Here is the input.
Amino acid sequence: MSMVRACDLLGVARSSVYRHLAGGRVSTLTIPQAERNYPNRLSPEEQVAIVARLNQEDVADLSIRQGYYSLLDRGEYLGSLATMHRVMRKAGQSGDRRRCSTNGTALPRVKPVRACQVVCVSGRHFRG
Here is the structure.
């Protein structure tokens, strides 16, 4: 019986069988990937600099992508777009970055009154 047929009948991957026959190498890495020291990994200071720069007033109201390209247009390169997204996600700022109203007013609610007419809470009428 061939190895292919035997593996198919047993439901085992051939690579697993060959690895087992070769002595079955066991990984010696004990450090989790997130904690490994890579030479191109950003330092915590560089990550703080990226967050601080993207929170400055001139790019704070832009999305991360818009901020990245806006900084590139000015000749500032802090890292790749993926790096900026990763750093901002880690900082908890990857969602909507626009400033929110602080005066306590809620957004107006819109409700349909009849066909082709919508009334806003403030009383204004919008016709479609």
Notes: The longest helix spans residues 44-54. The helical segments are 3-10, 14-21, 44-54, 64-73, 81-90. The two ends are 74 Å apart (CA to CA). DSSP finds five helices and three strands in the chain.
